[in-house]
Every structure is written in structure tokens, then in C-alpha cells.
Amino acid sequence: MSSDPNRAVRRAHAREGRLPAPERLHARRSCTAIAALLLATALTACGEDASTARTSTPAAAETTAAPSDPAGRPDLDAAEEVAGNLDVPWGLAFLPDGAALVAERDSGRILRVAPGGAPQQVYQVPGVSARGEGGLLGLAVAPDYAESRYVYAYLTADTDNRIVRFRLDGPPEVLVDGIAKAGNHNGGRIAFGPDGMLYVGTGDAGQSGRSQDPASPNGKILRLTPEGRPAPGNPYPGSPVYSLGHRNVQGLAWDSGGRLFAAEFGQDRFDEINLIEPGRNYGWPAVEGSGGAERGFTDPSLTWTTAEASPSGIAIAGDTLYVAALRGRRLWTVPLVNGRVGAPSAALRDRYGRLRTVTVAPDGALWLTTSNTDGRGDPARGDDRVLRFPAR
């Protein structure tokens, strides 16, 4: 394994179809030299510049929300656009009233999004340093939000990745800092589990050795109290580490039995869905995909080739696991039976482009965000979007 931290960045950029840094710089200079009459076309052709030059404002959908049955199954043929023209939406979490908070990765804004109304900016997270895959990433709403009013965010700052909490009318409080940052592999998904603890998916920040280092928070799933301290009952006393040996975790979800599943980006061969158990080692960088059990590692429950998935957010509704695929540009649906996964099926393939976050709303509807303005997609008119699929 090379010790060159930039090599992993170059591989990841190639995998997603991004230009390496010198070519991106040349492309930017070329774009600025094109006449104003061709500017819009040029920006679209110049990769990441197309997203940074956007001047549109968030837009509301024109339709009202269809009824949704919390006991039903999301109807993937009944998409409703809740909001459009968003700037790289990443985290999404629901308030008690059913509205969603949506984090924009690059702007650092948090928007309140609800069907039938225009998105409203309700917070600007200070200190966000949006570079590469970093920025304002995961969001979580405190289980006791009605009393505490706390919102939690995972963000990339100037020197590190960190977790903060805040009320929408007050300054943020840093709960955890010192999680190494890089141009990629920042992790970023956070979610409260059924036990009331805060779970955090981190990445190796381009240095794979961190994933096997129990003293490093990188390449791990962390389990914290709502105050940011190591949670009681963690497998390593006094440590926030819940599981290790991860490359880049961006999806966390629990089934009805309280089992935790996580989505993980592979490197060149296999992306993974893992059933997470405390203290288990999931093998990175010694293993990508299956084949590590004989060496003491825990094998994934499910794998795809990297071209089929690049999984980010995941959600579980009833007996189905939903996986938002970025490079795969589809939503995977996976049956679950007592913690075991069945054969996956692809839905929405190439319909909305890159898919980042999928979440189940309090009314049972499935919400989905696109990620076409992140410098790696092909934005269509109205991107990026928040979509809603009511449960029937």
C-alpha cells in the first residue's frame, strides 16, 4: 500500500470521472476565456466549475404532498419534487413537525424543507471549509428536540473534521474535533440510534493505516453520548470507537430489531453493506469486500462493484433496505429478514442522476436527495433536488 496520500485522491477522482488537479486548473482557465455568450455551456463542460458558478436559489415544488401511510411501503413510481435548485445537499434530518432540515455541503447553509413551500434558510454553520468531498455533511436532530432544540452536524473545518451541536437561534458548540480531514474519505454521516446514542461514520482521510489504529477516530464508527463523550458500554472502555477497519462510511440505519447497518465505499473493486457489531474489525485496508473472515475480520453482508454503487446514505423502511448510489445513479432496494440481506434490485436507474441521501420520514414517506452539482455529476435543470415517495 503506497504511503502517498495523494494517490488515493487521484484514484478516487478517476473512479468518479473527475479531472486530476492540473487538468481542472487548465479547464477553469479555459472557461474564463470563453465569451460571455457561451459561458453557461462552458461552465457545464468544465466539471466542478459548473457547480461553483450556480446563482439559482432554492425552489419549492408546485404540488402538495400526497398522503403517506406510515405502515405502508414507499411507492417509487410516485415521486414528488419537494425542493429544487439546491447547492450540493448532503445531510437530511426530520423535525418533529415533519419538515426536514437539509444541509448544503459547500454553502454551509441549513434549509428547512417541507412539501408545498419554498425552502427557508434557518441556520448558517460557521467555520465550514468546503474542499473536495469536505464541507457541511451529516445532520441529526436530537431525540429530545422538543425540549432541548438541539441539532447536530458533522463538518469539515480548516484543520479537521468535527461534530457540533447548536440550537437554530444560537452559536454552535464543538463536541468532537480532531477527526483528520482530506480531499476525500471524510465520512460524515451521523444518526441517533435506538439507544439514544449518537453514531458517527468516519473515513480514513486518505491514509488507510488509520482504520486499523484504535487510537485514531478515522476509519471507524463512533458511538457517543449526546454531549459528545464516549458512550457507556462501548467495546473499548473510555474510547468512542464502536467498530473499526472502515474505509469511508457514509450510511447508517437500524432495522426493526435494532441492528445497525452501514454503507461503505470500496476502493477499486467492491462497495459494501456491513452489519455492524461492537468491537468488530471490518478489514480495511487488508481486505476490500469479502475474504477476510479467516484472518479475523468481519465480512460484509453485501457487496457491489464500485461502478454499480458508490453507496452513500441508507435507510430502512419495514423489511427493505434502501441504498442511495452515487456513481451507480440508482436506488438499490434490498430485502431484510432477521438481519440477513436478500438479493438487491435496482430502482430509479439513471432517472435522477447521482443519489446521495435517503431517509424515512415520520409519515413513512421516503425522501431522497440528488448530488449532481457536487462537481462529479451532470446537472439537469432544477438540480439538485429533494424528492419524496409516499408510502402506500
TrEMBL record:
MF-aspect GO terms: oxidoreductase activity
Superkingdom of origin: Bacteria
Transmembrane segments: none
Keyword set, alphabetical order: Oxidoreductase
Listed Low complexity bias regions: 51-71
Enzyme Commission code(s) on record: 1.1.5.-
Coiled-coil segments on the chain, per record: none
Keyword rRNA processing belongs to the record: no
Pfam families: GSDH
The keyword Oxidoreductase appears for this protein: yes
Region described as Disordered: spans on this chain: 1-21, 51-75, 203-235
Residue span(s) of domain Glucose/Sorbosone dehydrogenase: 86-376
Cross-referenced InterPro entries: 6-blade_b-propeller_TolB-like, Glc/Sorbosone_DH, Quinoprot_gluc/sorb_DH_b-prop
Protein name per its UniProtKB record: PQQ-dependent sugar dehydrogenase
